[in-house]
Design a protein that fits this description.
The complex is a heterodimer of chains A (about 450) and B (about 1050). By secondary structure, chain A is mainly alpha-helical. Chain A has helices at about 1-15, 40-50, 60-70, 80-90, 95-120, 125-150, 190-205, 215-230, 235-245, 285-290, 310-315, 350-365, 375-385, 395-405, 410-415, 440-445; strands at about 30, 75, 275, 305-310, 325-330, 335, 345-350. Chain A has a single domain (about 35-170, about 185-420), classed as Serine Threonine Protein Phosphatase 5, Tetratricopeptide repeat. Helix content of chain A is about 45%, strand content about 5%. The longest helix of chain A has 26 residues, at about 125-150. Chain B is mainly β and about 1050 residues long. Among the domains of chain B are: about 1-100, Immunoglobulin-like, CATH 2.60.40.1120; about 270-330 and about 905-940, no CATH class. In chain B, the strands form 12 sheets. Chain B has a 22-stranded antiparallel barrel. A 5-stranded mixed beta sheet of chain B has the order 10-15-16-13-14. In chain B, a hairpin with a 2-residue loop joins β20 (about 365-380) and β21 (about 385-400). In chain B, α4 runs antiparallel to α5. Chain B is globular and about 110 Å long. The chains are: A mainly alpha (about 450), B mainly beta (about 1050). Chains A and B meet through α1, β1, α2, α4 and α5 of A and β22, β24, β25, β26 and β30 of B.
Chain lengths: ~450, ~1050
């Protein structure tokens, strides 16, 4: 009898409950439950900024690549990141990890944006709130497509925009892998159309003032860049003028006040910043600092010291130009002081550029919308302790732009749109365009590779 | 287990007795079997007429009577615990048996039970206590190296306590784990890396190897399928020591020794460095058309460079060499003390042990200490009930080294030019230490991190296990086990302000991480044994439930007042923190039946049903069957006449196993809340769903032969297997334009085929004894289907998974050497021109036109181990070699910097002096052109052979004779000296061919070297005292 009892006990021991197998993750939630409320949409929008802030995007790599591509006249690159060294030497291969990471990062963030846009109906507190959320999302998407098409496709107007391949346009969120997931490259023209549509709508929806997040001025500033790239000077002038006239932004008193946002300004943006990525002690990084920065001994400075500024560049500044003094000598090498702050906010666009854009566009169009070209240029010169010019020509404005915005990631675009040689390389050289990452070519046979990498 | 042994012996005898009754035409013999040591009778020994089934067993007084055929010549006497004896047939046979076991009668641990080796139908490799005792191995898995056929072990690096790669019969997965399942006394143990710094650590370091009785590696499906979805990579059953009844044994062991890194690399000295640097700068000036005298020339840059980086010490005529590589290595030490107690009576037995290990590594800044204790008790509560308990507790403290790819990796100091002094003459501090110039070493000086930073990992581990085993009815047993594996770990790291260049934390940074893994398991199963006629049946039926929960926390702080304050309490800024959790569970049922007929024919069937939280909703449970047969040919009459043959068994098996090491929630579509921005919380889509996701399935066929000749003086095994894995869990690459880079799917197929051969010989058996064990295995893996995926990894993404190739082959452009006319590096185009491979070459500017091809394979063709044991009187000598052949290693990690003819400014390997200089010169090193990429592109230039043979262990011991020990009132006194890795035969150009750079290591990224530290060469002196 006792033994039978034991057998029963033992058999009971053999059975267990299958419910114990229903475990769920604790840090993550299922996608079905992720976008149900207004709060969910808002945190997903923050997630899109989080993506935008990644090193591979506006955390700095986009600006770094735009500076380094073939820029042998201004920068000696001595870093060991082979991807950047190759970009600098124009010996880029299809496996370039920086090209790959920026491509992947951009589309990852675009998917976050598309998730936000897919759930706008959940935002019910107010129309303003919904507009703001949609506007910010569209600003991020439009800006990223603009950066992608500049890096990975032929310049606007270099051949036929309608047939030159741009980048794939993904405008809806990904819920699964479908045949549509294997997207071909849209034409350069189509991509620019989308960028303009996104940014224009963003500008119309966004509030004039929006803290560290994108405001209508940011969308207008980005639109002015797009228009300049397209040679649409009217649109460029008007967009830049809208940013200036908004009164939301103000040039800093001295050139030096623009930088060291963490060391000197406790992480706050100067009044001149139109859009930037905020870096805090806990979050975010500045890869402009990583590659252009170096430790000067001052607390809070650092960086790999990879980008040594050549004397040939420093010689371009006039005497007494505050910007010409804005270089740090370390040993026999010079580094720009713009990116020494380890935790400095990463600048995307600032007001001075808008003055220079308005000046250039007005001059080219023979107009004086907002101010005369001469007045705009002299505002910028004056800030850097330079005497005002008496007359101004296009070359003066372009030179001023080149020096004012040096090592901020704009030089290559300016060379391409003005059809000027870039460090001795023709503006339309196929080597100034990044490859579609090999990984993408391997998984998606609808993609065509850029000429230099066939 | 002891009870089981007896039971098995009894059944054996009964079976043979039955067989006896059918014999006729006989003569009567008799005799007595005694123990050689004490002359006591051996009870239940089996006496068999060789080549027949005629046998009997001895009585309580050791005597036997047996009718043997008139023509019988030889008797075989076997008994559990004694070596087999063969004697000629005579009227009276008196034999004394020596203690010890013949391999065939040994009891082998199998899943949920044990079996006699002779009756096995599966393939199980066994490593016994003797093979792992007192080796300077921090973890038991490393002891499998070269000792078990078909088990490939790569120690990866010389860093203490880090993970090792173990592959049983090849790599049977791509994305899921390929490490075997480790089961410690019935509990699947936590073996995943829990550390958050540097390379993966090995959680098995918490286990004292001297507590291990045996490790059984279940290699084929017949042996493994009882572990179902977890057995595809093989199962390693670890059994700890338990007490034996009788006299209490106390054993103490002390060993001490020293260690050095096995190999160094030949780098340029200061004179050579400067010479080649100037040469490369001159070449660059020539290419760029700059006058070397121009201040903007590369030559002028070289002048500045030499002056700056040598603190002005450099001059063309003389300059001192600073060997930075040597600074990375130090003389390590090894000290270990062990005490073991065991004993008991028929009712209660115990085993207890303590160990202290203190090891200082051969790379500066690396050390490991372990303190561990264990207590095991077995108690016979009633005739029908046995209970037992074992528990161990250990603390392992390691000062970690950073990952291979970190600037603070000491071995990376090799890249610093030899013109740079170790210390800054202005401050007297290590070069690069603030307030001196932080950039005076070409790279961050890793010795600053050794001096002003530390990262200490402390693990506390408890393995506990309790069981009750009840005889319910005759032949029917029930066993219930409950086991725990508790892992608590803390990591405490601090980097002083001096590390600013590396950490970008000018006022210091600290972090503190914890991991807590609670893993519990219960096994409950019935065992039924029954014999009827010539048949013998053993059946098992049971269940297992396991659940593991891991909790992690982390906090990071910056801005410390000074290096006197190293805890985060003093950090002015808390710069990061998080907690996280993960868990999994398995519920399994299993059944097995072993059937034996006439001691000749063996059949085994098993089935397991697994369900797990890891599998998708649509495929939650799976069934894993296996069948195997064995035929003991040597027991057949037609072979009984073959005198030289003592044993011959043919076995074959087929079964299905799975691999469930696919991560904890791979099947779900997920959002993760880690995408904050500037202090605001954010979420992001993080994973695409796959509700159909399940385990990987491996179908394995094995055919094997076990043989013994000349009374088993020559014995061995030969196996051939085919493992077909399907439903491979792949991170299938999808276009990144979706916002995701991959989706986890069950696609793809791969196979592993191989041959294993084990040969044990007793070459000399007299006073001077010599035995040899050879094991050699050949595995050939091939990926058959990848669903078109491109999967790559490793340094330069050169490891690739491709259809028709083994997992992780090196795929790169093929290097074609140097153009003798101009010093250009050349690459074969290897493009396909209508079926014709274009073997013309291109230089660096045409590199993009060259096609990639398979240029190497990190998987060895042959893996082997050879052990020779000698003994004479009190002396014993063991010599153990192991090695691999046919594999390649990717040295691009260092090569692209250090063997790259001044692509960068790193110190170069000595061979770079042969860089091309003059037209017509034949060399394999392209012209050095400072900062120009002339051959440092990814190519087969950086794929080299990794074959090696290594004298893994040699040990010489002396046991004092009994006459002396008796006078000292000791049971045993032994002195020994042993050496590890004293000799390595290889052509490998960098540090160590046994390498896997930790920062790149994955299933597919094998065979990469990235300034990876070499294995230590250790010499130990030991003393072993038995009371």
């Amino acid at each position: 009898m006792r033994r039978i009892l034991y057998i029963l006990l033992a058999v009971t021991g053999l059975t267990a409950c299958e419910k114990k197998l229903d475990l769920s993750p604790t840090q993550s939630i299922s996608q079905e439950n992720a976008l149900l409320t207004e709060g969910d949409v808002k945190v997903t929008l923050i997630g899109a900024y989080g993506g935008l802030q990644a090193e591979a995007l506006y955390g700095g790599d986009i600006q770094v690549m735009n500076e380094l591509i073939g820029n042998s006249e201004n920068i000696r690159f001595t870093g060991t990141f082979a991807g950047l060294a190759d970009i600098h030497a124009l010996e880029i291969t299809t496996q370039n990890s920086f090209a790959r990471d920026t491509w992947q990062g951009a589309y990852n963030t675009i998917n976050r944006v598309n998730n936000v846009l897919s759930a706008l109906d959940k935002v019910t507190t107010s129309a303003d709130e919904r507009n703001r959320i949609e506007g910010e999302a569209l600003f991020i998407r439009g800006s990223l497509y603009f950066e992608l098409v500049k890096l990975f496709a032929k310049t606007w107007g270099d051949g036929d925009n309608a047939t030159n391949p741009g980048v794939p346009l993904i405008l809806t969120r990904t819920e699964g892998v479908t045949p549509e997931s294997y997207a071909p490259r849209s034409s350069v023209a189509q991509v620019y159309e989308q960028i303009k549509a996104d940014l224009t709508r963003a500008e119309s929806l966004l509030p004039a003032s929006n803290g560290i997040y994108a405001a209508s001025g940011a969308a207008a500033a980005m639109l002015s860049r797009v228009a300049l790239m397209q040679g649409d000077y009217t649109a460029a002038r008007d967009a830049a003028n809208r940013v200036i006239e908004s009164g939301e932004y103000e040039l800093t008193g001295s050139f030096g006040d623009l930088w060291f946002t963490m060391i000197d300004n406790a992480g706050a943006n100067p009044s001149e910043y139109v859009f930037s990525m905020t870096v805090t002690q806990q979050d975010g990084s500045n890869s402009m600092n990583t590659y252009f920065g170096a430790s000067t001994g001052q607390a809070g400075t650092g960086g790999r010291g990879d980008c040594k500024i050549l004397p040939a560049h420093i010689d371009k500044y006039e005497a007494n130009d505050a910007r010409g003094d804005y270089f740090q000598a370390l040993g026999a090498n010079f580094f720009t002081k713009k990116h020494l702050d380890l935790k400095g906010n990463v600048l995307v666009v600032r007001l001075a550029e808008m003055y220079l854009t308005r000046a250039e566009a007005n001059l080219r169009l023979g107009t004086s919308v907002g101010a005369t070209p001469l007045a705009d240029v002299n505002i910028i010169r004056d800030r850097s302790n330079l005497p005002g010019l008496g007359t101004v020509a296009l070359a003066d404005i372009l030179k001023e732009r080149n020096l004012e915005l040096a090592f901020e990631g704009q030089g290559l675009s300016d060379a391409k749109r003005t059809r000027s040689a870039w460090s001795g390389t023709a503006w339309n050289s196929k080597f100034l365009i990044l490859p579609i990452p090999q990984r993408e070519m391997d998984v998606n046979d609808k993609l065509v590779q850029n000429e230099a990498y066939l | 287990m002891a009870a089981k042994k007896k039971l098995a012996g009894l059944m054996w005898s009964l079976l043979l007795l039955t067989a006896l009754t059918v014999q006729a035409q006989t003569r009567q013999i008799s005799g007595k079997i005694t123990d050689q040591k004490d002359g006591q009778p051996v009870i239940g020994a089996t006496v068999t007429v060789k080549g027949t089934t005629i046998s009997t067993s001895t009585e309580v007084d050791g005597t036997f009577k047996l009718s043997v055929p008139a023509n019988a010549t030889t008797l075989v006497i076997t008994s559990v615990g004694y070596k087999d004896v063969e004697v000629a047939v005579s009227e009276t046979v008196n034999v004394s048996m020596a203690q010890g076991q013949s391999a065939l009668s040994e009891v082998v641990v199998v899943g949920y039970g044990s079996q006699i080796q002779r009756d096995l139908t599966g393939n199980i490799a066994r490593v016994k206590a003797k093979d792992l005792e007192n080796l300077p191995l921090p973890s038991v898995d490393a002891a499998l190296q070269g000792k078990a056929a078909g088990v490939y072990v790569n120690s990866q690096s010389g860093k203490l306590g880090q993970a090792v790669t173990v592959r049983v019969r090849g790599n049977s997965s791509i994305s899921a784990s390929s490490q075997p399942l480790y089961v410690l006394d019935g509990v699947p143990v936590t073996t995943d890396d829990q550390s958050s710094y540097g390379g993966a650590m090995n959680p098995l370091i918490d286990l004292n190897p001297n507590d291990i009785e045996s490790m059984e590696v279940l290699k084929d499906a017949a042996a493994g399928a009882i572990y179902g979805s977890r057995a595809a990579n093989g199962v390693v059953l670890i059994t700890t020591k338990r007490g034996k009844s009788g006299k209490t044994n106390i054993s103490a062991n002390f060993q001490t020794g020293f260690a050095e890194a096995t190999r160094r690399v030949d780098f340029l000295n200061a004179q050579q460095y400067a010479e080649l640097f100037y040469r490369s700068a001159g070449a660059r000036d020539q290419i760029d058309g700059i006058d070397p005298a121009d201040p903007d020339s590369w030559t002028s840059y070289a002048d500045w460079f030499m002056d700056y980086y040598s603190f002005g010490e450099y001059s063309a005529s003389s300059t001192k060499t600073y060997n930075w590589q040597d600074k990375a290595f130090q003389k390590g030490s090894y000290n270990q003390a062990d005490i073991q107690l065991s004993g008991g009576n028929d009712k209660t037995k115990f085993y207890a042990s303590m160990q202290y290990l203190d090891q200082i590594g051969t790379v500066v800044g690396n050390n490991l200490k372990r303190l561990s204790g264990r207590l095991t008790i077995d108690h016979k509560a009633y005739d029908w009930l046995n209970v037992g308990f074992t528990s161990s507790l250990s603390r392992t403290t390691t000062r970690r080294l950073p990952g291979d790819n970190a600037f603070s990796n000491p071995v990376q100091a090799s890249a610093i030019p030899t013109i740079t002094p170790f210390n800054d003459p202005e401050t007297g501090l290590l070069t690069g230490t603030p307030p001196g110039d932080e950039y005076r070493a070409l790279y961050f000086n890793p010795f600053i991190a050794i001096e002003y930073a530390r990262y200490i990992q402390s693990g506390y581990r408890n393995f506990s296990n309790a069981y009750a085993s009840a005889k319910i009815l005759p032949g029917l047993n029930f066993r219930s086990e409950f086991g725990l594996d508790l892992l608590a770990q803390q990591e405490d790291g601090y980097w002083g302000s001096e590390n600013n260049r590396n950490t970008e934390a000018p006022n210091g940074i600290g972090e503190y991480n914890t991991a807590f893994v609670f893993n519990y398991n219960t096994n409950n199963y019935f065992t039924y044994t029954k014999e009827f006629g010539k048949s013998n049946l053993e059946a098992t039926l049971g269940m297992q439930y396991q659940k593991a929960t891991s909790n992690y926390s982390r906090v990071e702080g910056k801005d410390f007042p000074s290096n006197s304050y190293q805890k985060i309490a003093s950090a002015a800024t808390i710069s990061g923190g998080s907690t996280s959790q993960s868990q999994f569970s398995f519920l399994s049922y299993f059944a097995r039946a072993n059937y034996k007929y006439d001691d000749k024919y063996l059949l085994s069937l098993s089935l397991r049903r697994d369900a797990s939280s890891r599998f998708g909703k649509n495929s939650r449970e799976g069934y894993f069957p296996a069948a195997s047969v064995g035929w003991i040919l040597s027991n057949e009459n037609f072979l009984s006449k073959v005198d030289v043959l003592s044993f011959l068994k043919l076995r074959a098996s087929y079964g299905v196993v799975g691999n469930a090491e696919i991560g904890n929630f791979p099947q779900l579509g997920l959002f993760t809340g880690d995408a904050g921005y500037a202090g605001a919380a954010g979420q992001r889509p993080s994973q695409i769903a796959n509700p159909d996701l399940k385990w990987e399935t491996t179908k394995q066929f094995d055919i094997g032969l076990d043989f013994g000749f000349f009374n088993n003086r020559i014995s061995g095994e030969l196996d051939y297997y085919v493992k077909n894995t399907s439903g491979l869990l792949l991170n299938v690459n999808i276009p990144a334009t979706t916002g995701f880079t991959s989706q986890v799917r069950n696609v793809g197929k791969l196979e592993n085929k191989g041959v294993e051969f084990v040969l044990n010989t007793q070459n000399l058996t007299g006073k001077f004894k010599w035995s040899t064990n050879i094991n050699i295995a050949r595995n050939k893996g091939k990926v058959n289907d990848l669903d078109g995926q491109v999967i790559e990894g490793g340094v330069g993404s050169m490891n690739r998974v491709m259809e028709g190739q083994p997992v992780g082959v090196f795929y790169a452009v093929e290097y074609a050497g140097v153009d003798p006319n101009n010093g250009d590096a050349l690459f074969y185009k290897n493009t396909d021109n209508n079926g014709q491979i274009d073997k013309t070459t291109v230089n660096a500017s045409g590199y993009g036109q060259a096609s990639r091809v398979v240029v190497g394979d990190p998987n060895p063709d042959y893996v082997f181990g050879i052990t020779n044991n000698f003994s004479y009187k009190g002396f014993d000598l063991s010599v153990f070699f192991n090695g691999v052949t046919g594999n390649q290693i990717n040295i691009y990690g260092m090569g692209r910097y250090s063997s790259a003819n001044f692509r960068f400014e790193d110190n170069q390997t000595a061979d770079q002096m042969n860089a091309w200089t003059t037209p017509g010169q034949k060399t394999s090193i392209p012209q050095a052109r400072l900062y120009r990429n002339n051959g440092a592109q990814i190519s087969s230039r950086y794929i080299v052979d990794g074959d090696f043979i290594r004298l893994r262990n040699i040990s010489l011991g002396y046991n004092l004779p009994a006459s002396v020990t008796r006078r000292l009132k000791l049971e045993k006194l032994r002195f020994y000296v042993s050496g590890q890795n004293l000799l390595t035969i290889t052509n490998y150009p960098y540090w160590d061919p046994e390498v896997n750079a930790d920062d790149f290591d994955s299933n597919i990224a094998k065979g990469n070297d990235f300034y990876t530290s070499p294995q230590p060469r250790t010499i130990l002196f030991g003393i072993n005292i038995g009371l």
